[in-house]
Design a protein that fits this description.
Elements (H helix, E strand, L loop, with lengths): L1 E4 L5 H13 L3 E4 L7 E5 L7 H6 L3 E5 L19 E3 L2 E3 L5 E5 L6 H13 L4 E3 L17 H14 L2 E5 L6 H7 L2 E4 L7 H8 L5 E4 L6 H12 L6 E5 L17 H8 L4 E3 L1 H5 L5 H10 L4 E5 L17 H18 L10
Parallel strand pairs: 7-8, 7-14, 8-9, 9-10, 10-11, 11-12, 12-13
Antiparallel strand pairs: 1-3, 1-4, 2-3, 5-6
Helix pairs in contact: 3-4, 6-7, 10-11
The structure holds phosphoenolpyruvate and manganese (II) ion.
Manganese (II) ion binds next to loops.
Length: about 350
């Protein structure tokens, strides 16, 4: 539950109220950047005297949250979380594009892609150096060498880097080479990794688990945020359903639902969400129309030769076609608000 204080409370009343909550044995967090101050109270199975708390003159309202997540709830922070990176802002209402290969393969490949995406106006490049693969015999990434190649691409073109961290032991290493650290679907519920990333000061891209429900997805974001890091970008990347014509089913319903439920930005990955290059452009536009704060696209100079996920990589021409349409939408979006009202 969230306690909303009356606006412009005086510091000594606030101090006394905090003492009162502490005497009740409650654990709580203060929301930052809200026009009226909000306090998240962890129930931890305790019986909380809500009626008495509500009757305090300093209290404006008691607002709902979920038992699983409350700091990521909109009631804790009504304003959108906006993530500021050099030259690009995520979550301010204007969608962004992240693009790059599934995996870093070699220097020539990653440099070619970095130039290609940069020339299309993309500010953030993706590329895995640590790859979670279904088969132990598949290419699992160049690891530290791959990170160094990403750093070279960043230096040469100015693109920012998002790359996956698979293991708590690699957090420091990956943090050194990335602007945004990606938590893959398979690790969405690796709570030790989430907590470790919650303690660092770097934006994170949290991908939805392939069969994660809404509260599990937001619960994972809460694991991060409760450790202190609130720079979280959520990512819908498709869920497992009974359909066989796509790799996953892109759950675009979750976009407006999350925009209402949480202050965190959410982007969509139609590459993994479909697994089919022929429908990635349609689903990218659909994602943006649904209110996504951005899209993440896999692109490769020679898709048929990609070392991982070749069937969903766009060729440079296909990517350029997609970017023309996406840019038209982004221009339109600058002058048009989306409904529902909270978007
Ligand atoms: C990826 O984006 O590189 C990836 C492995 O995707 P996911 O974790 O969504 O399967
Ligand atoms: Mn991939």
């Amino acid at each position: 539950m969230i306690i909303k204080l009356k606006p412009h409370t005086n510091p000594s009343d606030k101090y006394r109220f905090i003492e009162y909550l502490t005497d009740l044995g409650l654990e709580f967090h203060f929301s930052e950047n809200s026009e009226a101050e909000r306090i998240q109270v962890m129930a931890n199975g305790k019986n909380i005297p809500w009626k008495e708390i509500k009757s305090r003159p300093i209290v404006d309202e008691i607002l709902d949250s979920s038992n699983i997540y409350s700091m990521v709830h909109r009631n804790y922070k009504p304003e959108n979380t906006v993530i500021e990176l050099p030259g690009v802002t995520i979550g301010d209402g204007i969608p962004i594009v992240i693009a790059g290969p599934c995996a870093v393969e070699n220097e020539a490949q990653i440099l070619e892609i970095a130039h290609l995406v940069r020339n299309q106006g993309v500010k953030i490049m993706r590329g895995g150096a640590f790859k979670p693969r279904t088969s132990p015999y598949s290419f699992a990434g160049l690891e530290e060498k791959g990170l160094k190649l990403l750093a070279k691409a960043r230096q040469e073109t100015g693109v920012l880097i998002v790359t996956e961290v698979l293991d708590t032991r690699d957090v420091e290493l990956v943090a050194e080479y990335s602007d945004i650290m990606q938590i893959g679907s398979r690790n969405m519920q690796n709570y030790k990794l989430l907590k470790a990333l919650g303690r660092i000061d770097k934006p994170l891209l949290l991908k939805r688990g392939m069969s994660a429900r809404l509260e599990e997805f937001l619960g994972s974001a809460e694991h991060i945020m409760s450790e202190g890091n609130s720079q979280i970008i959520l990512c819908e990347r498709g869920i497992r359903t009974f359909v066989e014509y796509t790799r996953n089913t892109l759950d675009l319903n979750v976009v407006p639902v999350i925009k209402n439920e949480s202050h965190l930005p959410i982007i969509v990955d139609p590459s993994h969400g479909t697994g089919r290059r022929d429908i990635i452009e349609s689903m990218s536009l659909a994602a943006l129309a649904a209110g996504a704060d951005g899209i993440m696209i896999e692109v490769h100079p020679h898709p048929e030769k990609a070392w991982s996920d070749p069937e969903q990589a766009l060729s440079p021409d296909q990517f350029s076609h997609l970017m023309n349409h996406v840019n038209d939408f982004i221009e339109w979006r600058k002058t048009h608000a989306l409904s529902p009202t909270r978007l």
